[in-house]
Amino acid sequence: MGKLNVQRPTDVPHATDYVESMVDMIGELINRDNAYVTEDGVYLNVLNVPDYGLLAHQSLDDMLSGGGDREVFGAGNKKNPADFALWKFSKPGEPAWSSPWGEGRPGWHSECVVMSLDILGEGFDLHCGGMDLKFPHHENERAQAIALGKTFANHWMHNGFVVDTEGEKMSKSLGNVANLLDLLDHYDPRAYRLVLLQTHYRGPVRIGQDNIDASVNALAGLDSFAARTSAVSQGATPDSEVIAKFREFMDNDLDTSSAVALLFETVRRSNAALDANDQSAASLSAAVIEICRAFGLDLKQASEVPSDIADKAAALDAARAAKDFTAADALRAELTAAGWIVETNKAGTTVRR
Ligand SMILES: [Zn+2]
């Protein structure tokens, strides 16, 4: 996660620490007459949840009659086919906890609702998860909260899967790379991040040699852009129109692919402005740096240049200012010999690898 520049979660709860709270919640649901005990467990009566099916975008009637594309499997002793288990009585040898209704274990959907309401409280902002969890898992988490008379997540986000070029779950498509950890060992971890950003989060993310290579190249381009423009972008106010557009895209259900297109368009505009010695180069390049920072793409800026090299670049500028071109050429040759690319423009000299 560190390599991907992803922050660690504050809490990583274990369901086994919450079994008592789950038993309390199930008891409350029975008290409210929204759950009932059968011979194999305790079930939630989904008919008591007025808008059951909200996340699946299907009405209960459709689900019950099989009219939707999600079939609901019935079990003999449930009141309604769509009712789901809150507590399952254990068979001999299975892990079990005690409850007023008999030894057993909580249903999967009950674990999450108890933990999220306990840690985040009612009406928390955002509930995320893979597309495959929308129904029945998230629908059923939500149904329990509603049946308890509680407000659950204000927003839901369901992400698509990472797939290979054939649309299959990512596996052997990248030669020696079989999983994400491998990918991060073999390629610039930022490249994976950029590929994700180029796809809408709800869509499948296709990972192939071509788009990983393209991302590695794009990042090298962004790094050299950051190094080349560090003198003009530092301290400049990011172009307000570009930033406003960026926010507009991000506010539109995280339209990161349009935002990435805006990023590269801004790089092109900034380069053109630099070449034309136009002063808009400063705010445009500052906008590029700002967007990259918001995306969590840490660019390798000139600040990573060792101090002796930076001193030589500064000496080169001083020599040019003093019109001592022999000294300037000698310094340039030294820097080049040490493996640095030296670029000089109106703003001064920048060096990069
Ligand atoms: Zn969950």
Automatic annotation (TrEMBL):
<dbReference type="GO" id="GO:0005829">
    <property type="term" value="C:cytosol"/>
</dbReference>
<dbReference type="Pfam" id="PF09190">
    <property type="entry name" value="DALR_2"/>
</dbReference>
<keyword id="KW-0067">ATP-binding</keyword>
<dbReference type="Pfam" id="PF01406">
    <property type="entry name" value="tRNA-synt_1e"/>
</dbReference>
<dbReference type="InterPro" id="IPR024909">
    <property type="entry name" value="Cys-tRNA/MSH_ligase"/>
</dbReference>
<keyword id="KW-0862">Zinc</keyword>
<dbReference type="InterPro" id="IPR032678">
    <property type="entry name" value="tRNA-synt_1_cat_dom"/>
</dbReference>
<keyword id="KW-0436">Ligase</keyword>
<keyword id="KW-0479">Metal-binding</keyword>
<dbReference type="InterPro" id="IPR015273">
    <property type="entry name" value="Cys-tRNA-synt_Ia_DALR"/>
</dbReference>
<dbReference type="GO" id="GO:0046872">
    <property type="term" value="F:metal ion binding"/>
</dbReference>
<dbReference type="GO" id="GO:0006423">
    <property type="term" value="P:cysteinyl-tRNA aminoacylation"/>
</dbReference>
<dbReference type="InterPro" id="IPR014729">
    <property type="entry name" value="Rossmann-like_a/b/a_fold"/>
</dbReference>
<dbReference type="GO" id="GO:0005524">
    <property type="term" value="F:ATP binding"/>
</dbReference>
<feature type="domain" description="Cysteinyl-tRNA synthetase class Ia DALR">
    <location>
        <begin position="245"/>
        <end position="306"/>
    </location>
</feature>
<keyword id="KW-0547">Nucleotide-binding</keyword>
<protein>
    <submittedName>
        <fullName>Unannotated protein</fullName>
    </submittedName>
</protein>
<dbReference type="GO" id="GO:0004817">
    <property type="term" value="F:cysteine-tRNA ligase activity"/>
</dbReference>
<dbReference type="InterPro" id="IPR009080">
    <property type="entry name" value="tRNAsynth_Ia_anticodon-bd"/>
</dbReference>
